[in-house]
UniProtKB/TrEMBL annotation, chain A:
Compartment(s) of residence: Cytoplasm; Nucleus
One Gene Ontology cellular component annotation held by this UniProt entry: cytoplasm
Name the UniProt record assigns to this protein: Proteasome subunit beta
Source organism: Friedmanniomyces simplex
Keywords: Cytoplasm, Nucleus, Proteasome
Region of interest (Disordered), residue spans: 26-45
Automatic annotation (TrEMBL), chain B:
Pfam families in the cross-refs: Proteasome (PF00227), Proteasome_A_N (PF10584)
Proteasome alpha-type subunits domain location: 8-30
Lineage summary: Eukaryota, Fungi, Dikarya, Ascomycota, Pezizomycotina
Biased segments, Basic and acidic residues type: 257-279
Coiled coil: none
Oligomeric and partner information: The 26S proteasome consists of a 20S proteasome core and two 19S regulatory subunits.
UniProt keyword Nucleus present: yes
Keyword Cytoplasm: yes
Primary localisation category: cytoplasm
Protein's name according to its UniProt entry: Proteasome subunit alpha type
Compartment list: Cytoplasm; Nucleus
Keywords: Cytoplasm, Nucleus, Proteasome
Amino acid sequence: MDHFPQAWGRPRDDIYGSYNPSYLPHNKGGYQAHPNGQPNTHTQSPIVTGTSVIAIKFKSGVVIAADNLASYGSLARFTDVKRLKPFNKKAVVGFGGDVSDMQYLDRLLSSLDVQENYRSGSSGHGDEEAENRAMMSAKNLHTYLSKVMYKRRTDFNPLWNALLVAGLDEKSTPFLAFADLLGTTYSSPTLATGFGAHLAQPIMRRAVPDEEASQNLEREKAVEVVKQCMKVLFYRDARSMNVYSMAVIDENGVDLKEDIKLEAESWAFAEGIKGYGTQTV
Amino acid sequence: MTSIGTGYDLSNSVFSPDGRNFQVEYAVKAVENGGTAIGIRCKDGVVLALEKLVTSKLLKKDANKRIATVDRNIGVVYSGLQPDGRHFVSRARDEAASWRSTYKAPIPVSSLANRMGAYVQAYTLYSSVRPFGITGIVGGWDAEKEVDVDGAVGSGPKTGSGGKVQGAKEGGPYLYMIEPSGSYWGYYGAATGKGRQAAKSELEKMKLDPKAGDCVSLEEGVKEAARIIYLAHEDNKDKDFELEMTWVSAMSGPTQGRHEEVPKELREEAERLAKKALEGEDEEEEEEEEEKMEE
């Protein structure tokens, strides 16, 4: 008599030999070699990519910007790619990194928005203020996205993006935070992803050194600093372009422009730069 | 009922000798006891309205909404067993989400009606289940302009055909009603529940054929819907009810293609007019009676 119930009803090992579980799917304990003899792999590097996203908190809202380029390696492959995605009246997400992962996240957020609106009207009774309070804030959205990113990195299958979430929190105060493919998150009155973290962040910090400074910053000034940063990024980041999107989120909602041309573009300064390439100084 | 006691009404999936499925017919009885629900397909949108019978004074007013949103652009209202309706809505939402994950675009109202019809019909086939005790009204607006697929990041090539037909007209308001048998039809105006007879005869008087010209506008539709629900409630006057109304318009209209609750002000205005219209009718009747008395 076999006293182990696990074995009841199964072919007996002493007659048939033990079951070879390698044929089972991986998640059921299978370990059959991958067809090409390699272990399963997921994304090892991004393919089509977007470069920096930058953002600044000001007095009553947030300005966020990203250019419209999607690069395929060093090739400027797509020049009309909108990398700022408005979620609702309170939040915009800026995507850097892999464009297909951005599209995945965009669809994910769209289905989230559909689900969020199932109960719209049922909480507010046509009362706009109550509806506004029940609406998902930028802070909620950032929490959600950061958990999605962390889950995927824990599965060793990361979404190859660096995100900025800009908007208003549940108290309608400006909110800005970062999340990336590692599940890392942080927040600051000024934020930039990718090259922007090296090239734009110092410029933005000059204008907004701390939280207090951002609370005194006017919208016009914030927009001006962002525009200046986008120009510097175009001059110094080889994977950038001179057409970009910019969104301002405040209590009036999202003001998104997706075809801003760089103003007063001039390469005159390049003459003075020496010591690289084929120049003979 | 002659069928009782014959045994053919005890199970789904068993026909009676004269070719009827009695379980489905009993389900229709359950619907006929529910609060009246109507849908009106107007020129520039769809209105859904419901006579929500108040089952307890302890229920919070205007809470516990019964008309549900599926995806963004479709509304569902139903009469009959509420839990069955909840399940119907939940399935409709799943269907809409699964359509999106396949086609990266919102589900057309006609396709949703088709899938829900198939789903409801499946519950008439097996002895292990009972049919849905609801009749569902599905109304929505299909985008009239070509929309980008979900997640599109650019506008695509500027030259070449791209497989698009120039000036093709598509989309518009759609309204379907799905019965416990799983059969569904497209309607200009749909009504179900206790007051459906009164509601239907009112709907028939309305100009709802878009080809005939002077088809009612969405705003007229809202007022008419409120009046019809109030009228349909007349035979059931001893019970309290709340009027629930939602609408969906074109992108250029008041809801911008989304299914939403009718704003409070407009609903209250429609209710005021509805009450006035009913009082007017009562007075007319009284006058007629008085005239008869005099004679």
